[in-house]
Specification:
Length: about 500
């Protein structure tokens, strides 16, 4: 069944979205998505074609996403703040036939070298001239297009992730994967949502947490989504109170920002009944501060893109602080040692996950796919955890070198590749280091070319022109050499 079917069973008069000060009812949203769907089909796009969506958290993204899925196409949400070179690479990687460009990304997209993305036949954007591509508003006047039925195993979404190893890859998520995890997320006791709920939509929808946990769950139950394009601690609290938001999900950085405010209005966040943190480890003190200051129990979850994404949550359980809760209903979780055997209670082991929400693999990379998901269907997450006698999971570490900055995956090899393009850098190594707000930050150790002068700010600016901001090193240390093992592999553990 096409995932869009799950989103189209609500009162047409109920408000679905609040975006840029305007409201859209479910009836209007369904009509707009159907017309946009017809426009995409009129362009000759066929089921299975990839469509990149470069858009912020607004109405444009939601209607584009629903139209793309409804037409049987494969949605590929991309970060609108990424530099042009990164967008070019990701669009080319998936062989997108069309790109939908939101208002916030329009100027940036004009700087993209379209010769680098030869598969793209249509670019669609607001106010586009024929020279630019196809005007989005024009497509919205198209006759409604038929909803294309999809099987549970059919590909629905490609989300870029670093996975459990290697450079960024596009994770393949099916209609069944996404629908199953929405149901699992809503099945935790106390996590139920309904038409009376107002969901605070600040999580970026190019990230699986925002796309399926925030947006997907809300649209599935007919809730109202208050879309926020840019987070500001004070205005966010004002918006939550003004609209009576009842469900607030976000990374630890968001919650930490609120605990750091010198003053807040009396009764702030009093409407919130579900508060959840995810995408990065939640400091225990942040959870305590939120409860002391706002009287809210802040729940923590664990997941990864390859699991669509929710694996566990503390919602509905008596899990202690520091735990990421219990597995989602219908999901099998094991903790295994290096030989693939289950570890004893209290011992650390790699988290393995199996269930209908586990992804199809990495697009165009069967070797990485087979390394990540075994023939028996177990997803090898690369995360290390322990479990207590009550079944509560506690994350310990990661087996791989993946860095998580505010919930976003950064793989050192990608940053190192960019650093090595700098003419004054002879060698480098990148590691993740603890950060009080983002969970981790990117730190680079750099060896300069002999006799060449280079400044830290220059290197960071060089990276910023080629990488998304969260991937850029926050700090550089100039060293005489980078430690290596006998095989020439960088010893990141020594650097940490």
């Amino acid at each position: 069944m096409n995932l869009v079917n799950v989103f189209e069973r609500h009162d047409p008069e109920s408000v679905a979205l609040i975006s840029r000060g305007k409201t859209t009812t479910y009836g209007q949203l369904h009509e707009q998505a159907a017309a946009f769907r017809g426009g995409l089909q009129r362009l000759g796009l066929a089921p299975g074609d990839r469509v990149a969506i470069v858009c912020g958290n607004n109405w444009y993204f939601v209607v584009s996403y629903l139209a793309t899925l409804g037409a049987g196409l494969v949605a590929t949400p991309l970060n609108p703040l990424s530099p042009p070179l990164e967008l070019e690479s990701e669009i080319a990687n998936v062989g997108a036939r069309a790109v939908i460009v939101g208002p916030t990304a329009r100027d940036k997209f004009t700087r993209i070298d379209r010769s680098r993305i030869p598969t793209v036949q249509h670019t669609i954007g607001c106010g586009f001239t024929p020279e630019d591509g196809v005007d989005l508003d024009e497509l919205l006047t198209s006759p409604p297009g038929p909803l294309v039925e999809r099987d549970d195993g059919d590909l629905a979404v490609l989300i870029f992730t670093s996975g459990t190893g290697g450079a960024p890859k596009a994770a393949m998520l099916s209609h069944g994967n996404l629908r199953t995890n929405i149901a699992q997320t809503l099945s935790f006791p106390g996590a139920e949502q309904g038409p009376d709920d107002v969901v605070f939509g600040v999580l970026p929808m190019f990230h699986i947490f925002g796309l399926n946990v925030m947006l997907g769950s809300a649209l599935a139950v007919g809730a109202k989504v208050l879309l926020v394009e840019r987070f500001d601690p004070i205005s966010a609290i004002e918006s939550i109170d003004k609209h009576g938001a009842t469900v607030v999900t976000g990374p630890p950085t968001m919650w930490a920002a609120w605990t750091g405010l010198p003053s807040v209005p009396e009764g702030a966040l009093s409407s919130v009944r579900i508060a959840a943190s995810g995408a990065a480890r939640l400091p225990e003190e942040t959870a305590r501060s939120i409860e002391r200051r706002f009287g809210i129990r802040l729940h923590e979850g664990y997941g990864l893109t390859e699991a669509s994404p929710v694996v566990s949550s503390t919602i509905g359980s008596d899990a202690p602080l520091g735990s990421v809760g219990v597995p989602a209903p219908g999901l099998e979780v094991r903790l295994v040692d290096a030989g693939g055997d289950d570890v004893l209670v209290g011992d650390a082991g790699e988290v393995w996950v199996r269930g209908p929400n586990v992804f199809l693999g990495y697009f165009g990379d069967p070797e990485a796919s087979s390394r990540t998901v075994g023939a028996d269907g177990w997803l090898h997450t690369g995360d290390v955890a322990t479990v207590d006698d009550d079944g509560h999971l506690f994350l310990v570490d990661r087996m791989k070198d993946l860095i998580i900055v505010s919930g976003f995956n950064v793989y050192p090899a990608e940053v190192e590749e960019v650093l090595m393009q700098h003419p004054a850098i002879d060698a480098c190594a990148v590691v993740g280091v603890p950060h009080p707000y983002s969970g981790e930050a990117v730190k680079a150790y750099v060896v300069a070319v002999p006799g060449v002068s280079v400044e830290e700010d220059d290197v960071i600016a060089f990276c910023a022109s080629r990488l998304a901001r969260y991937k850029c090193p926050e700090k550089l240390w100039f060293v005489d050499e980078v430690p290596q093992g006998m095989g020439g592999k960088v010893l990141r553990r020594a650097l940490r």
